[in-house]
């Protein structure tokens, strides 16, 4: 398979897997309430251990600089904040508002990628962001629910998670030459996990029920470890802006899974919104048209 297409497929598969998180957290909540920091710490333990196993076969032999190791440390801080704020948003407001604000991330990535990841800006990328994000708004329809103070706080948490998630995408891209995807997931856990334990309620993790722990372990192993590895492996093959737009498939997958697993109806707005999300994803995966200079170079190589 073409490496670029493989990268798109890996990112899309990761995003669809992440769409199961609302169901997993709802399943875990039946066993008792648990603070977002405690939930995140449990997930991070499994994420670090699982990526450590994958790292045995997935290594980069290049020697990283001190600056690159600082990047890994920042990745740990940013990922801890990303997961913490995202899980908090789920607890404070509706899934629609939490996911919608979290997926401001592709906009942040598109704006920052030319500076941070040194990717040349393309008008097509910005059009795809607008189409896909507009479809996400229609798909989730946050205006259909009556909003209160907790919804505003949940939206703020979702937006905060978007900032840190965008940072994760861009930093992962910058460090791809020095670390494999498995190495980045493994090493950053040694910063992320202590950060999460520091803010978790004291003693709460010692009294987690099996009914709560079980679903969190399933989520950590599935969309956590497998989804995370698929994403970082895919990100190495495609531009950061493209990968971030493809992650908009996550809420699309969440809506479909909720319909199949929970019997929630899919209305016309969901169908239109889903079509726009897929349209934005398809637009960003379309290869750029060769310009006159590239045509001349191709002809010269053929001579």
List keywords for this structure.
mainly alpha; disordered C terminus; single chain; 303 residues; 14 helices
How do the helices and strands line up, and which of them pair or pack?
Blueprint: H1 3-18, H2 21-29, H3 36-54, H4 66-92, H5 95-102, H6 105-116, H7 123-140, H8 149-174, H9 181-199, H10 210-235, H11 240-246, H12 249-262, H13 268-285, H14 292-302
Helix pairs in contact: 1-10, 1-12, 2-10, 3-4, 3-9, 3-10, 4-5, 4-8, 4-9, 5-7, 5-8, 6-8, 6-11, 7-13
Structure, described:
By secondary structure, the chain is mainly alpha-helical. 76% of the residues lie in helices and 0% in strands. The protein has one domain. It has 14 helices and no strands.
Helical residue percent? over 70%
Give the overall silhouette: globular
The fraction of residues assigned to DSSP E strands is under 5%
Low-confidence parts: 293-303
Largest sheet descriptor: none
What is the end-to-end distance?
Answer: 27 Å
């Amino acid at each position: 398979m073409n490496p670029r297409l493989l990268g798109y497929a890996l990112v899309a598969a990761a995003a669809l897997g992440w769409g199961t998180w609302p169901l997993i957290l709802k399943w875990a909540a039946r066993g008792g309430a648990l603070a977002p920091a405690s939930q995140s710490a449990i997930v991070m333990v499994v994420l670090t251990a699982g990526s450590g196993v994958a790292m045995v076969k997935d290594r980069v032999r290049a020697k990283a600089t001190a600056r690159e190791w600082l990047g890994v440390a920042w990745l740990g801080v940013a990922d801890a904040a990303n997961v913490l704020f995202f899980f908090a948003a789920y607890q404070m407001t509706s899934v629609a508002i939490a996911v919608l604000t979290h997926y401001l991330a592709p906009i942040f990535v598109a704006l920052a990628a030319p500076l941070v990841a040194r990717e040349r800006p393309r008008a097509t990328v910005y059009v795809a962001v607008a189409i896909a994000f507009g479809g996400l708004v229609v798909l989730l329809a946050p205006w259909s629910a009556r909003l209160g103070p907790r919804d505003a706080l949940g939206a703020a948490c979702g937006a905060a998670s978007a900032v840190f998630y965008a940072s994760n995408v861009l930093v992962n891209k910058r460090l791809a030459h020095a670390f494999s995807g498995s190495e980045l997931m493994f090493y950053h856990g040694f910063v992320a996990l202590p950060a999460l334990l520091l803010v978790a309620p004291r003693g709460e993790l010692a009294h987690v029920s099996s009914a709560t722990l079980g679903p969190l372990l399933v989520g950590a192993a599935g969309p956590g470890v497998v989804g995370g590895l698929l994403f970082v492996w895919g990100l190495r093959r495609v531009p950061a802006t493209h990968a971030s737009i493809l992650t908009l498939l996550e809420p699309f997958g969440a809506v479909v899974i909720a319909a199949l697993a929970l019997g929630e109806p899919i209305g016309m707005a969901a169908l239109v919104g889903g079509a726009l999300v897929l349209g934005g994803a398809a637009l960003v995966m379309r290869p750029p048209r060769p310009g006159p200079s590239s045509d001349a170079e191709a002809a010269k190589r053929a001579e």
